[in-house]
Amino acid sequence: MDAPQPFDLDLTVRSHGWYDLPPWRYDADRHVLGRPLRLSSGRTADVEVADGQGGSLAFRALAGGRLTGAEAAEARDAVRTCLALEEDLEPFRRRVAELEQARRAGSAPRDLPRLGWALARGAGRLLRSPTVFEDAVKTLCTTNCSWALTRAMVSNLCAALGEPSLLGGRCFPTAEAMARRPERFYRERIRAGYRAPFFVALARAAASGRFDLEALRRSQEPTDALAERIRALPGFGPYATEHLLRLVGRHDHLALDSWSRAKLARLRGRRRVPSDRTLHRWFAPYGQWAGLAMWLEVTEDWHGTAPAWP
Q1: Residue 34 lies in a domain
Q2: What's the mean pLDDT in 49-58?
């Protein structure tokens, strides 16, 4: 499987916390990422991707019985989607290079982040789910709670509603499977708390076709128009909306939360958390890539010789 260059599989996998949530599994020592997938044929396959030779990626898919050519291609395409391999980051890379050059010339804005490392290592691709529906549900699971609770809710969803796979794991549940369950199920079995009605509403909207979540990745609409549609979904406030936009390749917004605000204050040596207006000003020079520039600044220390998280 070809990969854009430069490309760092480990950096992409650990670009944010999704790899730590079921049904993903990641061997950090061997740099092997895997998960079960439900294919459109109704079968499940376990897929794995690892560093290959010459800058390529090694891919394999396992199932109970031989996969057809179409099923194998679907599994391969899903992995490419998850690693954002088709996302064109050259405009972002050019903008970073321009601003780094301006910094060296002394003409860059004073508060500009240092993103030379991102250029050198090919950073900027974020791990995504095979479907926007899965990304949307997981996004709801990150709101107003600890990471431990996020992981518990996602684990409960997979265990209760996910289809079993060959290697013993379970797929992430489909919208149809989630839509069949009542709100009480999500409160009592999944421990979703106030998110329970949001899970039901989201699943039923997706399963019925009232909201085509998968179309968000290929939409040509302006980002603000997409944001307005996402914001209309129950449970999607400003952070959840902008976080989901990030996962469909729209980086215009910062998707700020309490963690990122505090991290930026610490990185910039501020005693108090700056206003959101100030934070937006810091990243405005990156234009439509402002949110990606912000995310790369706050996560740089995850990818050094002594990773800061997790």
Answers
A1: yes
A2: 91
Q: Using CA atoms, how far apart are residues 15 and 9, in angstroms rounded to an integer?
A: 10
Answer for the pair 161, 38: CB distance below 8 angstroms, yes or no: no
Q: pLDDT tens across 65-119, in order?
A: 999 999 999 999 999 999 999 999 999 999 999 999 998 888 988 889 999 999 9
- Report how far residue 86's alpha carbon sits from residue 273's, in angstroms, rounded to the nearest whole number: 36
Last residue of a domain, one of 240, 270, 288: 240
Same domain, 137 and 44: no
Q: Is residue 3 one of the residues assigned to a domain?
A: no
What residues form DSSP beta bridges with 57? Answer: 51
Which two tokens mark 294?
């912000």
The dihedral sign for the CA sequence 214, 218, 220, 226: positive
Q: How many residues does the chain have?
A: 310
